[in-house]
Each structure stands twice: as C-alpha cells, then as structure tokens.
Amino acid sequence: MRLPIKLACAAAALVCLWAGLAIAAQVTPCDMPVVTGEHWSNATAQEKLAFLAGMATIIELEQEVQGDTPGECKTLIQSWIKGIGDRRLEDLRARLDQWYAANPDKRSDSVVEVLWREFVAPKLGAKQ
Known about the structure:
Layout: H1 2-26, H2 37-42, H3 45-66, H4 77-84, H5 89-102, H6 111-124
C-alpha cells in the first residue's frame, strides 16, 4: 500500500516540477509597447480616439484608487488631469495630428511624451 502512495506523490511532484518549468520557460521580460508618432500617423481616427480613451481611463482609474489624498508615493495623475483634463478626446486627437504634421522629424517621439511635453507641462508652469 505504501508504494502506490509514494509513487503517486513522486508523480505529483514531477508534474508540479514540470508545470513550474513550463511556466518559467514562457516567462519573458515584458516590454511595454510605445506608441510613436509613426504609429499615430498611420492610425485611423477611431484608433487614435481609442488610444486616448484608454489613456484617460487609466488616469481616471488611478485617480479613483488614490482618492483625495494620493499618499506617500509620487504620482503624475494630478498633473495629467491639470494638463489635459479639460480637453475633449477629439480635440487632443486633432492637436496631436497637427503637431506630428508640423514636426515630421519627431515621428519617433512617443505620443505620451508629446502629450506631456507639448500639452501638459506648459499648463503646469514648471517641469514636473
């Protein structure tokens, strides 16, 4: 009776080890995709609005999680809200289109970087 229990335990341990190794083999460093002006310029108006809506949702979600007092960790959420919170998504899309059209040599700049540098930072009055 003891041999089957030991065999079952060994088999279970082997399966767990195999599963762990299989999972570990699939884990790779995850680079966050960066949407550049190149991507932006080739996207449809709907794709651009979807990107901006996703960004707005993340900002709103983070603001909700933080509540009225963001706590000890540094955050840029209030800066983003102050910088672009009063704008409609369609306005942001049009302004980004205009900016990339006027600056074709900057198409490698990320959309988030351009939003920050050109639309948020000027409203803050200081580099945050």
